Here is the input.
Amino acid sequence: MFNKAEEILEVCKLENKSISDIIIEKEIEHLGLTRQQLIEKMRESLEVMKHSATEALEKEVKSVSGLTGGNSKKIEDYKKKGKTLSGDLINSAMAKAFSTSEVNASMGKIVAAPTAGASGILPSAFLSAKEKLNLSDDDLIKGLFTAGGVGEIIAKNATISGAEGGCQAECGSAAAMAAAAIVEMAGGSVEDSFNAASFALTNIMGLVCDPIAGLVEYPCALRNASGVVNALISADMALAKVESLVPFDEVVEAMYKVGKALPESLRETALGGLAATPTGKRCSKKILG
Amino acid sequence: MKDYSVFDILGPIMIGPSSSHTAGAARLARISKEIAGDGFYKVAFMLHGSFAKTYKGHGTDKALVGGILGMDPDDENIKTSLEKAEEKNIDISFEEVDLGYVHPNTVKLIFKYRDKEDFYIIGSSIGGGNIVIVNINGNDVNFTADKPTLFLKYKDRKGVISEVGSIFSTNDFNIASMKVTREKRIATMICELDSTIDDKSIESIKNLKDILYIKSINPIVR
Ligand code: SF4
Here is the structure.
């Protein structure tokens, strides 16, 4: 059992282990499973993630409300033309993040990571890292434990719910989890992983939750796309040995306090931000009556 | 501080779009159906708060109907559950109501049977796919369906609690929590256990004196 990044850092140093090693050991004890059973359980999640992150690339997927859809395919098609500004990796990652978000909004199957709203970030980040770094499924599964461990720290010491802490708590947490895992999978140190997680949260601190019509669609899908990019660049900065001046545990605490300070209108109530714009209200009226 | 598993963070595997409005709704309805029992010809859903306001956009209606048809929160058939209910000749209705001081995501499910009285359950979806059932046929309860649970109704008399307890301990079950409420000399017991209840224990409890109703529910994966 651990509650803080500091504790994980200490154990990792003492026993010369990675974050995933420690989380896997903890889970074996917590759930009473064998190592193999635990790995297979996570493999199920990985398979669902792979599917959701690619399903909407080739075919247009529309949301139940009819408000959004088809953007994953648009970005994928645009990327294929080869004239993007930010390159194949970034565009592909955005398309994959959109894919899961669109599958989610169409009542398809996803893994909440850490929530359904932010479920596009991890699958896309992991598939992007797999391609770029030539990783195996087993590497990704280990990485998912790292991501889960970082998410646990945030859930324990702050929140992963948009209703409580705004979108920084959902898409910010997902990006932090992904960034830390990518760093580990890329061979970075435990310190590097937590630096990456700190950057991801720091970059979007204060991000509000203002879904149009209260539905998990817009701006959610956009924030999943920018969220995966946030994860990738945060990982890169950490691997370049840029250091977070403020340690991860303190960043998490700051995020929580910022979330608490957000007015209720900006915490999933659909009363502020984009939801409260004339267009947002019009969409809401059309869908919900 | 709550003790988490990584699967609480990376999970549930679910049908979108919302863990509280879709996955939690499906789970709530699925458990309610287990408690109420099969054979209903109609289910009326009374939606409260945010459930009432946004159920169409979130597919809460489809998730609830999927649940009463026995679908789990990750079942891709949830998308077409309304059609499935029609095929099975199960009548469905939705109504927006005010259930008073309850969680914003709350629903009252009324199961209607031809051969017995209506059965109703009130429950809330409290986030992340977690649920709590707060009322069964007028009895206040507090039941999260995370653990194997035994429901028991009996004519109130001394000794039932210890008789049930001793059956469980003889068969090596650990009781995690037990709550008994009484109304008009009928007692309702909700007992959560650490491991799945076996048929033998159920049979022994059923054979105790004055038992009116017994039902065991196993947890539904999140
Ligand atoms: S805007 Fe709100 S509902 Fe949408 S992803 Fe962010 S936190 Fe979730």
